[in-house]
TrEMBL record:
It comes from the Bacteria. It holds the Pfam family DUF742. It comes from Streptomyces candidus. Residues 1-23 are annotated as: Disordered. This is DUF742 domain-containing protein. InterPro entries: DUF742. Residues 1-10 have a biased composition (Basic residues).
Amino acid sequence: MTSRGRRRAGMVRPYTPTGGRAAPTRRTLDLATLLIASPDKPLAGLDAHSHRLMLHCLPGVLSVAEVSADLQLPAAVTKVLVASLVDSGHLHSRNPVPAAQQHDHQLLERILDALHKI
């Protein structure tokens, strides 16, 4: 265990940004979950970390992994913060389209037919 004098400057315990919460209220969040900010929700009253997260998400759609990396927060902490913001209506979460549903089968068949003709 490190003494207080030897701790890195700027190091924050993981439970500090979450207000002591250890687990997200939503089990559906993963690193690929897409986050969409509600621009009409007031940011007043949010804690500093949630406010920073919302400002980061406002320009567009970001994944939980992107937010976590950009804000330099552990993924588990980011998920707890995101879950609280989804619960309050500040964020909307959306699971990404599964890989199996992303491809247009007709297009792939036309490409395969064209390759067979070559």
